UniProtKB/TrEMBL annotation:
Transmembrane segments: none annotated. Signal peptide: none annotated. Pfam families: CMD. GO terms for molecular function: peroxiredoxin activity. Residues 45-122 form the Carboxymuconolactone decarboxylase-like domain. This is Carboxymuconolactone decarboxylase. InterPro entries: AhpD-like, CMD-like. PANTHER family: 4-CARBOXYMUCONOLACTONE DECARBOXYLASE FAMILY PROTEIN (AFU_ORTHOLOGUE AFUA_6G11590), CARBOXYMUCONOLACTONE DECARBOXYLASE-LIKE DOMAIN-CONTAINING PROTEIN.
């Protein structure tokens, strides 16, 4: 298990590792949350991984709503409470309903296209590939770049789930609430 890097051990290298993700005024242990505070224990690795994760979260061609479907189904498969706690709240902010979020647990979505997204995540999880039929179903609404981003979102958040689960990163008190995110932004 790894704990967040203690405040007295933060240095310029730890703060710089967060440069692609966090504005300078928030690069401190009390402002970045447990996941980032733990990842900066290895600043070189964090500095390499976080730009990719930031791309998946903010610059991906995958629509936000679908991105959150992918992340939640991935978090479910890996039993990652940390990802689930943060992304279930984010999912509501980008238009998923409580029923959509529940569907990421059950794997059964009423919307046919959303079901194709969940099926793609399930196939990646169990067989390390999306089958041709599901790839075609995704292609009804997503172009090749979006389908690639879907696959890399699954992969990136799987990697993060492996790390968060192995390190024992704890969900912050109040995570998943509007008040929590407002305090992180101030």
């Amino acid at each position: 298990m790894l704990t967040p890097l203690p405040a007295e051990e933060w240095d310029d290298e730890a703060r710089e590792a967060l440069a692609s993700t966090v504005p300078p005024e928030r690069r401190r242990p009390d402002m970045v949350g447990n996941a980032l505070s733990t990842l900066v224990r290895h600043p070189v690795l964090a500095g390499a991984f976080l730009p990719f994760n930031t791309y998946l979260q903010k610059e991906s061609t995958l629509p936000e709503r679908l991105r959150e479907l992918v992340i939640l189904r991935t978090a479910f498969h890996h039993d990652c409470a940390y990802e689930w706690g943060h992304h279930s709240a984010m999912a509501l902010q980008v238009g998923l309903t409580e029923a959509d979020i529940e569907a990421t647990r059950s794997g059964a979505e009423a919307n046919e296209f959303d079901q194709a997204v969940l099926d793609a995540v399930d196939e990646l999880h169990t067989g390390s590939r999306v089958c041709p039929h599901t790839w075609e179903r995704l292609g009804q609404q997503l172009d090749d770049r979006q389908r690639m981003d879907l696959m890399f979102t699954f992969g990136g958040y799987s990697t993060l789930a492996f790390a968060l689960n192995t390190f024992g990163v704890q969900l912050e008190d109040g995570a998943g609430t509007d008040e929590f995110y407002a305090s992180m932004e101030s």
